[in-house]
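Quick board copy: two proteins, each given as sequence then tokens.
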Amino acid sequence: MKRIFLTLAILANVTMLAALVMGLQIGDPMTLGGRDPDVNRWIGNHILVGLFALTSVTMVHALLFTYFMGTGRWIEETSAAYKLPPQFHNANQKLKYGILPGIMFTFLMALGTGCCGAVADPATAASLTSWTGVSDSVLHFAMAIATWCVNLLVNFTQYFRIAGNSTIVEAVLAEVRRIRLERGLPVDDAT
């Protein structure tokens, strides 16, 4: 799972970075009264890549949480079947619920970045400038940078939690192997 997660997390972060760089390339959206085809093309591409980045980040976090749910269920059922101590399941639960705040915070930040982008569009009547004291485009850019940095940090911690969970799974497999050997039951050599 570590390799799969690492690959997908890198792709999602590259997509976020691409959306950020594309946003910087837009220039003045009010060129030619907002009708400059080059600027509008950059805006459209930026929105599409930004939505893809939001979807990618969400899918990576959802996949990770699904992985923890699946291994947690497997550890729970295996522990019940072989009467293993609850320490394995408890350690998995701690890891699983430890990643949940980071997932939610990153998702809300990514969603907030998109909302700030919608407000930064000069075609909209909404503005947060009176609340924040900065222009909407600067707010959107600051949110994009902050979201990307937070996502990198959360992905970094998630990677190590996956490693910790792998250790738990290996310990459960070793304990099951030991019990099966003690009872004279067949043991798969791959475990």
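And the next:
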Amino acid sequence: MQIRGHAGIRYSGAAMTHRLRLRPTMLSDLDFVTTVERDSRNLPFITPWERTQHEGAVRFPDFRHFIVEGGEDFAAIGFVILQGCRNPHGSVELKRLVLQTKGQGYGRACVRLLKRMAFRDLHAHRFWLDVKQLNVRALVLYASEGFVEEGRLRESVRVSIDGADGYDSLVVMSMLDREYQARLALGQEDGEVK
């Protein structure tokens, strides 16, 4: 990866090149955000917010709400929310990462960009998230990116898929700043300015 400003990267994969950047979400973007969030491919894995919750996240200084833009034309492909950006304990949460474009490496590129932002720009001690247990694809991605499972909140969220109601567990995962620095030293975190 090569840096494109503070919020953009170029990700070169085995057979493809990605361009990815984050820009602050504006209130005019919230129709896009709610549409992506309520897409049937995303609904099983997240609990959608009301528009007013997104408005609060855009305005409240403890949050960072971004539109993910990617591809050659930097089209909007999703959004991310960080919470705890002013946390006195240095614990920043990846509250939400939702992408429209699936299976093209944008998720991994975005996670790497967010790790860099959390540890370098926000000076986090701990970067954490929770993910539904049924979201196997995300669990594999986060583990491969160095996040460590801390525990499970058993059957803590109600899930309705294809008319069937039930409960799913949340898997809590995190990365500490020293673990991120070790990954940097081992060359596992590309995209850093050399």
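Board note added afterward: The chain has one domain: 2-185.
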